Amino acid sequence: MDFPVFHLDWLNNRGLIAIIAILHVVINHAMAVGGIPLIAYLERRGVRATDGTQAQQWDRLAFRMLAIFFFVTTTVGALTGVGIWLSAGLVNPYAIGSLIRVFFWAWFTEWIVFVTEVVLILAYYLSWKKWVGTKKVSHVKLGFGLALASWLTMAIIVAILSFMMDPGSWGTDRTLLSGFLNPLYLPQLAFRTPVAMVMAGAFGLVVTAFVTPRRSEIQAAALRAIGGWMLAWMPLCLVGGYWYATRVPVAMKAQLPVALLTQQLAQWSHGAITVLVGAVVAIGLIALWARLAPRTLPRVVLLVPALLAILLLGTFERVREFTRKPYAIPGYLYSNGFRKADYPILQRDGVLAHATYTRVRQITSDNEVEAGREVFNLTCTRCHTVDGINGIRAVVANMYGNQPWSVSALDAYIGMMHNARPYMPPFPGNGPERKALATYLVYLQNHADTINGAQRDGVMVLPRPRRLADGTLIIAQ
Amino acid sequence: MLPVPVPRDIPLPLPADGFYLEPLLIVAFIAHILFVNLTVGGAVYVFLLQLWSRRRPDYAVLARAVAQTLTVNKSMAVVLGVAPLLLINVLYTVHFYTANALTGMAWIALVPVIAGAFVLLYVHKYTWVRLAHRPRLHLAIAGVAVALLLFVPLVFLANVSLMMMPERWSSVAGLWDAVWLPAVLPRYFHFMSASLILTSLFGVGYFGREKFVQQAGFETLTAPNIRRFFYRIAFGTSLGQYVIGPTILLTLPADGLNTAVLATVLIGAVISLAPISMMWLELKEPLAHRTRLLEISVLLTATVLCMAMGRHAYRKIRLAPHQRAIANATEQWNSDSSQAAFNARLRSELEASGRSVGQPIFEANCMACHARDERLIGPPLTEIANIYAGNPDGIVTWAMAPGKKREGFPQMPPFEVLGKEKLRHVADYILQTAAHK
Prior knowledge:
The complex is a heterodimer. Chain A contains 18 helices and four strands. Chain A is mainly α. Chain B has two domains: 18-332; 355-435, Cytochrome c-like domain (Cytochrome Bc1 Complex, Chain D, domain 2, Orthogonal Bundle), CATH 1.10.760.10. The longest helix of chain B is centred in the C-terminal third of the chain and has 60 residues, at 293-352. In chain B, helix 12 (358-365) packs across helix 15 (419-435). The chains are: A mainly alpha, B mainly alpha. Chains A and B meet through helix 3, helix 4, helix 12 and helix 18 of A and helix 2, helix 3, helix 4, helix 11 and helix 15 of B.
């Protein structure tokens, strides 16, 4: 309402964030948070090896793995990290703007840790071939120091992610500390840490398979070591995952006392747990195989844990994003970008009356479709497109089929959809806007339309309505 | 002329006073831009040196050495960019996000563009030997990386310019509109020149060392050659800045300029005369020493600091009225919003308790003169309800500006002060009360 509406009518705004964010989290977990300690561990194996050739082979493997991880993390990894921020700023500036106000100092600390991490990874990578001989032990220590910095960046950002699911006492306190120490923070951190370690192992298996000579002594030894690494972290994954999964529904239940939602959430978390556990078991079996009989492992099978890990993490992030609906910040900001506290004034006066950027200020009998389109643009496009991913036309068709859609039926439905579909926020506009939106949706049954977003169509600024001393709103024609 | 948009700000407090955050922004930004300059300038140098290496093979060795430095510089540029981004997000929330959205495709394209440029720079660096037999392909890889990198500052400059021109927001749709905003292109060339100057001075200091030249194994290039090479480019480009700088001042909208801004920028320009003449002195010496490099760097840093402060002050002054309007609109909105929330809650509570919203208003304003069934001073409600059956707005119109209908009744005072909304509740209450007993 106060920001120009950026919109991608095919990919969907959430699709944009999802692509960037999942790419980032996979790279971050597998190649930084988990990857660096794994590399330092492999390097240490080299240092500890009594045989000179073996020591050299371990060292070469560790360095090659680091080179690959360094290449990816300092390009795509770093830029997708900034990219989450840039895309969130385009898609839901209300949410990210609010989060930055609350978590500024956490983010600022994050930045300092982040600078440390980059300096350390540059040092770790660039000094690999210079710090040799007696300095090698210090180099391994540098690796573990870098691992700590990588883990810290995640430990801070997880606070913000879990805040978005359950802000806990921030709802009343509004302080950084109460936001940071939200109820889901520790369970989520306890889950993500071992997941990152296991993922690093899964990616490490792939790297080992491709950078060491086939069926060589070092390949078998490395697969055995990485398999063991994964098996060691696996139980912690299950414990953390269980703790987290049991906390999610509890936290959400407190937010939304709708019996139906509880049912639905149970389904979600049930489905999530099945996927998580299934993938973890499969990864575990392959890790066990690598541990016990590395020479019998076909290359193709070595790809499976990495792919499953991506699937696992992707599902996990999706479930996390979904369970916090209808909110972006529970109890404070809906996922459509409207603050809960502003609903009374918007539902009384209408969204069009108060929007800074709108092509329609007042609904008349001959601009209902145009007005409805603007209402759609302002209130629905954070999650819906017209015909793309989560397209509204398909959603309505799914409900009413091919028979002529009815304005009055849709009007009534929009008024109560948040009860029928608990992940939907309530409609923020007033009665006439609801009807206009319904009219636009009915219009869509027989007309194509594309919403281009402010990045292509620009914005229109109409004079604001005047409010008389008695509270009446006067809209200039 | 369209109205200037006055959006409402996010109604959460700033994490600290602007007094502390603004200097932090300036310092963090300078640290960031320093490495950005070295990255962009370095990439340009890699490309040009490799191009020139056909005539002078030693330049290929130098190009490779410059390419090595990019690994560190580009990573520092990105990570140091986080703090200024964070700070500008809180200090100029509305302005920054608005500019981002209006140039949305270019803004989000920064992610693949920069990542792509970095990947290509790595590929270029690690295929130096492998692609030695295909020099054109190898050069083309650097060329594409440079082209991508040259696009990035354009997007940033379009954004930071658009954010401080709210009067242009409704006439911009996409990057290419924003690029033509006042001063964007001059600022772009200003930035590119700065990148070249900074990287050249870095070149004097880093590649102009005797130790480096010994290790690099040039055929003919000597350390003084290299110093002279970089000093000449730094000196020539610096002279160009005296044309570009004033162009920016002249093309920027004048309403952000005041004596303080001008003085800051001019002091910076005057300071810059010293390091530039020092570059000239170094060049005049037969061996182009780098004895004055430290002084040059310190003085240029002072210039950069002045320019960054001037630029920040310009933005602050230019946006001050708009910021105030936003603060007022936000405050007004919060008060209207909480009033509306209060009214809605009151209504639902009254309804739940079986009382109408109009009743308390009626009791406070009307009851002294009107009763249900009998005349007090004015007529009874039953009589009013007869006249206005099914027409509550008629009662509202009357109460806003009552006429005089009846003999022997005193003139009713107008109740315009209550407003139509409340009067309508009163009217509903009157019709309801008269109908039920």
